[in-house]
Structure formats: structure tokens, C-alpha cells
Design a protein that fits this description.
single chain, alpha+beta, Alpha-Beta Plaits, eight-stranded antiparallel β-barrel, 8 helices, globular
């Protein structure tokens, strides 16, 4: 059990200057992030168009996944760090989600950066999921050919799905989806009652699409900022 927490920040860049600045931060920000106190793991990530996995980049949205030794370090960074201020100054929308780890399986960059939280709130049913994979180069065509089919249930609308976005470290090869659900039952209904999703799971097992994969579930407990003009969790964390 651990006191560590995870933050996932999304930034929207609506100007050409902001988008160019954000693109270069994918390399330049490493020098700052490597020296941040209390930061044990991070990934700077771009995003795909629309929802779920998508090979076409969305140049207006970037993300930062960060694992902190405890919440104090996370709050200090997002409230006071010069880099955090620059992210806010150059973007038109920012949303930072604070989360505790519920469950994790698999590896990310050869290790597991997430530790199950010692302090989950059993009265909080919200569930966030990161599904991340490195796709085998020889399986790229098979994988991306099936993606549109696997995404149909999400595009059609899933009951209990609050938010979803495809994010990634490298185009085509290293992809992830982030999804935010009202509760576990909503996720379970999508995972096991969606024929397209069930087929995707079977194909993953049969064809061995992934060189490395991770599935992590989190309990969101704090939401700062706006996305699409509002805080996506305002109605869920009001209490």
C-alpha cells in the first residue's frame, strides 16, 4: 500500500503559437521534469483525434501523466512550479485530475510506476482507467485495421462514460486510452456487453498485438480546471 498519487493533466492549445510551443515541450520539458521533487514517474503525451485510439494526431491537445510520492508534492507542483505556470499561460484550457490507484496489471516502459493506494474512499464510486500498449511493428496493420470497429460503442455513446481521450507517447506504436466512468458497473457493462470490445480482447490474446501492455484503474478524488468549458467532474465531486 502507498501514499503515492497520480495526476493526469490535459492542456488544450487553440492558437498556432500555443500548439508549436506545446509540440517542442515534448522534448524541452524533460529537463525540468527530471528535477521536480517528489515526482517518481512521468510521461509527456500527445493525443489522437476524436475518442479512444486514433492514429491521426490532435495537435491541439497534450497530456502529462505524473506519479507523486504523496499529494503534497503534486499540489506544490501544480500550484507553484514555473513549468506548471508556463503550461497554463500557453494553453486555453487546462484540467488536472488527481487519482489514487485501485488496481494495476502489466508494465509501462519495463516497470510498474503505480502502487495501490492505502487510502481509498469506499464512498466514492468514480473510476478512471488507463489502458496503455506498445504495439508490435509487425502487428501495426492488423491492430489499426480493427480499431474503428472496436471504437463503435464509444462513438455511439456509453451509459456512465463521463470522458475519454486517446493519448500516446509515440505515433502509431505507443498508444493509450484514458476513460472516466461514473462507477464500476458502467465500465463492466461496456467491457463485457459490447461485442466489439469482447472481440478486441480475444484478438489481443490470439494475435499478440502488444509488445508491452498495462491496465490501471484509479479512483479520481479531485478535479481542477475546465475542459470543454466546464469541470467534467463538478457534478460528481460536489460533495
Amino acid at each position: 500500500m502507498s501514499k503515492s498519487i497520480t495526476t493526469l493533466a490535459f492542456f488544450r492549445y487553440s492558437t498556432w503559437y500555443g500548439r508549436v510551443w506545446a509540440f517542442f515541450q515534448m522534448q524541452l520539458a524533460h529537463a525540468h521534469l527530471r528535477s521536480v521533487e517528489g515526482l517518481s514517474f512521468y510521461k509527456l503525451m500527445g493525443s489522437g483525434r476524436e475518442m479512444g485510439f486514433n492514429p491521426a494526431p490532435d495537435w491541439s491537445v497534450y497530456a502529462l501523466v505524473a506519479v507523486w510520492e504523496d499529494a503534497t508534492f503534486a499540489h506544490h507542483f501544480w500550484d507553484h512550479a514555473a513549468l506548471a505556470r508556463r503550461f497554463r499561460a500557453n494553453s486555453t484550457e487546462q484540467w488536472v485530475l488527481y487519482m489514487k490507484v485501485r488496481e494495476v496489471k502489466g508494465l509501462w516502459s519495463g516497470g510498474n510506476p503505480f502502487e495501490k493506494s492505502a487510502h481509498l474512499d469506499e464512498g466514492n464510486p468514480l473510476l478512471a482507467v488507463i489502458t496503455r500498449a506498445t504495439i508490435k511493428p509487425r502487428r501495426l496493420i492488423d491492430f489499426w485495421r480493427y480499431v474503428p470497429t472496436s471504437q463503435r460503442p464509444i462513438a455511439a455513446g456509453c451509459d456512465g462514460l463521463i470522458f475519454t481521450k486517446g493519448i500516446g507517447e509515440a505515433p502509431l506504436l505507443q498508444m493509450a486510452t484514458f476513460s472516466l466512468w461514473r462507477d464500476f458497473d458502467a465500465l463492466k457493462k461496456f467491457a463485457y456487453q459490447s461485442p466489439e470490445h469482447r472481440v478486441a480482447i480475444e484478438k489481443t490474446k490470439q494475435l499478440g498485438w502488444y509488445k508491452e501492455e498495462m491496465f490501471a484503474r484509479f479512483q479520481p478524488y479531485r478535479s481542477d480546471g475546465i475542459w470543454g468549458g466546464k469541470d467534467p467532474l463538478a457534478d460528481y465531486l460536489a460533495g
